[in-house]
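Note to self: user wants both folds in one dump. Writing first protein now.
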Amino acid sequence: MNQSRCAALPVALFLTIAVCAACAAAPAPGLQGTMQLVESVPVETVLDQPDLPEARDVWPAMIAAARRTLDIEVFYVSADPARDDALDAVLAAVGAAAARGVRVRLLADRGFHKTYPEWIDAVGALPGAEARLIDARRLWGGVQHAKFFVVDGRDCFVGSQNWDYRALEHIHELGARFASEAVAAAVGAVFAHDWALAGGETPPTDAAAAGPWTLAAAGGAAATVRFAASPPQALPPGVPHDEPLLVDLIDRAAGELRLHLLSYGVTERDGTYYATLDAALRRAAARGVQVKIILSNWAKRAAALPHIKSLAVLDNVEVRFTNIPEWSGGFVPFARVEHPKYLVKDGDEAWLGTANWGRDYFHESRNLSFFFAAGPVAGDMARWFDTSWNSPYAEVVDPCADYAPPPRGE
């Protein structure tokens, strides 16, 4: 690890701790913690929600508050080797935590480690830290795709943000922070399960509680929260599979569904047809529910377009692509894109997860989900959706038009 970049916390980090302290404050009587939506906004765009904190500030502040343990489970880790970036502050906080005696454990996907080995290996080499790689391909057929971390068994973050400087600076993302021992225990049970598998050990058999919990959300209003995960063959006892809960949420919609994803498709790479979630959306539209879908312009792929257009042509369905403009500093590979994964039902319930909508994400890969009812969470997520829906970057999908995807990689 570059010691000049990661050995000490930047001064600005301490300023963020006060900003994030409200979420970690003790909950009111009768509540089991607090929660807060956390965004990431591409620089030089108009997508920012001023009342939501950004992950680039929240993450290092949470890690700086760790005193005993820091458990991190990510797809991969990628900082920009050419310059200091937002992820450097996060990695610096991890290094500082290990230096002050916090037990740091980092778990990442073995397959993707081949692409980005540097930072995972560097964290694993820190005194008091350990890194493991989980072979999700061998175990389940997919990848370790979840993105989360748990601090001291009391505070955790789950969201669409990979541990990638681009996810903190150049990609539109949505996650949530939970200052709750109950939620942290459930998320921690998944980490404990996967950590054991990565080490060739037997996973714990203790049952985890998956809610419902009552947490204080924005403005102190109470929200009901439930936890679930994928894949079904790798769930800790007590944690339900998220896909059936997501279908049930869609099937209960009466007025409107707002869906915000990176991409959309029903055909897997091996040709497998997957219609579970797609069929639920079509059932909703058929019974008169207004279905609004935002997809990134990465979805303008030849394999996906016919099915996206087949949705857009339906009554009660509108699909929009978003085209995030290039950064003034030049082309950023694998960035300038929408990457959230959430659904809002009727403005009163919502799903927030780490999975893209493909069969492998729900049946072969590790992903986490939260389901929200009551309180302001669904309304706040609907407002976040509307910002992109009505932005100058949105483009209504024309079923008769031709589209080409933008360049993605190097």
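First done. Writing the second protein, which came from a different request thread.
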Amino acid sequence: MRIIVAPDSFKGSLSAVSAADAIERGILEVFPDARVFKIPMADGGEGTLETLVKGTGGVLRDVTVTGPLGEPAAASYGILDNNTAVIEMALASGLTLVPPDRRNPMITTTYGTGELIKAALDAGCRKIVIGIGGSATNDGGMGMAQALGVSFKDAGGKELGFGGGELARLALIDTSRLDPRIRDCEITAACDVTNPLCGETGASFVYGPQKGATPEMVRILDSNLRHYAQALKEQLGIDIAQIPGSGAAGGLGAGLMAFCGARLKSGIDTLLDAVGFDNLLPDADLVITGEGRIDGQSVYGKVPVGVARRAKKYGVPVIAIGGAIGSDAGPVYDCGVDALLGITHEPMPLEEAMERAEELLCRAAAGAMRILAVGMETGRPGRRPE
């Protein structure tokens, strides 16, 4: 029996790698001869780098970059065996790098993300996958572009500083010194939000508050991004203000499209393609996926449904295991999931379930296999009821 195990992380409890290991142990407990292919997954946010590097046998490269507050920060990027670089922008420009009392998207920058791109270019990579979830920034990707050589100046010819607050002074965008290697690159931004750059559903209004923006800051930041978008349109002929996803990561989606020619793509689809997931499906007998919670929102770009949709194309059955199963999870059955299982079988506090997640997930996987074994046994010739 060939089983693909492709879970997301169980946030706060297990990484995707640990979740895959736990599921494998449960499988082998019942089917010790099963061939298990572990492909830990992510959706473009936290865990993207670890997932792709470990899932493909790639390597990590450590670098020091400029963090979101302009201070040095330790970060990493990955190189896969096909010479594709993987970047998780949150490791260079992420919200977790900023203490809660210092969060201020008026000043935070994506410069470090640009430095990671440059490091990948220096390593010879010309295909780059960037997960753009979890940002601390709202600068439209200006900092990223600055790190790659783009100049942003005010009316007096002075270079702009860091942060979305600086965009109000923008008068000139000069791309003459943009790293020429960018033109030879294929850059994909793994992104599962469809917010435009500006407006009430844009980067500032929707995500600014969680990054420390006050209501007044939100209005300023949105106005500044509108000004930035107008400058891009007038000076570079690039109109990205209303493109779905341009508001991702505080507008980094817009910056990547404008200066790097990046295309935005569903996070889970990007990762599935990068690890060659579809190549394993024709010979698979079963796929097991999962994440911390599976509910009605799972159909919107979450790992279990992304995995199930791929498996459905090949007629491979899918079991999804969740730390919790929402009462509104029914729609996932229409997306290729054949069975849903929760990891708890008795009432327990959330804290206990999270602490015991590895044990409970292994037990749930073993339980699924025992049910499968019963089905296989009852389906044997001579065992089916008349």
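Dump finished. Worth passing along: Residues 152 and 173 are 5 Å apart (CA to CA).
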